[in-house]
Amino acid sequence: xxxVVEQSSRGNGGARREPLPLTNLLAAIVNSSDDAIIGxxxxxxxxxxxxxxxxxxxxxxxxxxxxxxxxxxxxDRISExxxxxxxxxxxxxFPYHETVRRRKDGTTFPVSVTIxxxxxxxxxxxxxSSIARDISERYRIQAELRHRTxxxxxxxxxxxxxxxxxxxDLRAPLRALDGLSDALLEDCGDSLSEAGRGYTERIRASCExxxxxxDDLLRLxxxxxxxxxxxxxxxxxxxxxxxxxxQRHGPDRRVRFTIEQPVWARAxxxxxxxxxxxxxENAWKFTSGRDDAAIEFGTTPDGDSGSCFxxxxxxxxxxxAYAHKLFMPFERLHTTAQFPGTGVGLASVRQIVDRxxxxxxxxxxxxxxxxxxxxxxxxxxxxxxxxxS
Length: 389
Known about the structure:
This protein is of the alpha+beta class and about 400 residues long.
């Protein structure tokens, strides 16, 4: 039973110690409990009261013993006590019951109570015992969680409203600005100076960049709200499909793709496809200056989660000293003149992988390519042959 309560037979310095009698041992356990342990008669009169009960309710044993147990209940809970006593009289137990009790000063607090009938040696019902625990802290935490959940839901609604506002209110003037700039070039291009035409082209390019930024922001917002539906996904097949699309839209590029197949994982199909789309498009973009461009997708063992998935290229790479900035929104390690983009794609990658419970990181060297890695939890592994039908 754990530590045994003992007494010395030779004073404080005695060598031999003997266990307390069972009655004394049980009394010591009751008195040392952090839970309020209360004994009462079958009609609800309090007969025993341990120190934890005194701390919890504020009554001393001298004040409360002999009083009806209903003094510990708010007025609207007295019928509950009477119902419990009636059921206890039939031998019924209450293994766990959450309710409200009242202290000596009149304040109320939530408790969890276990109530049991007490029988004598002849198995006759002689009373009841209750063990009560103050669960105020648990209720406080639950209330705080509910409050935070409400705040989070409100924030998501505000984000959705903002997204719609951005989509509508910003796109309209951008479309107008782009259209007017195009009309200016078409109708008045001959009368514009070379500098004037250059300015107008820059306006159109800025409109296009702003439109792309809005699209990326909306995609990032959708990623944060999307519900995750985990299923078996062949990442190799998804990567091959994306590679085929990239080659179809860039027929003039010569890129050697090496894609491991099959690569099974458990993830949300749509979201994990977004991860692969961003990483492979990134590799495609940053290998655009190479005649021998090579992009690889595969896996490598990872001690924490079982497998690490990676996209590797031999493109422009990056300075490893700034690797921590890669997955931050709007952070770019190359100018838009070198490589177009808004710096949101990798932020989406990290957010999606984080929501799956995985990790993301990157390794690279300027001018010598880059490797982007991510992990997914290894729960419920999928057989190498794929999901069962």
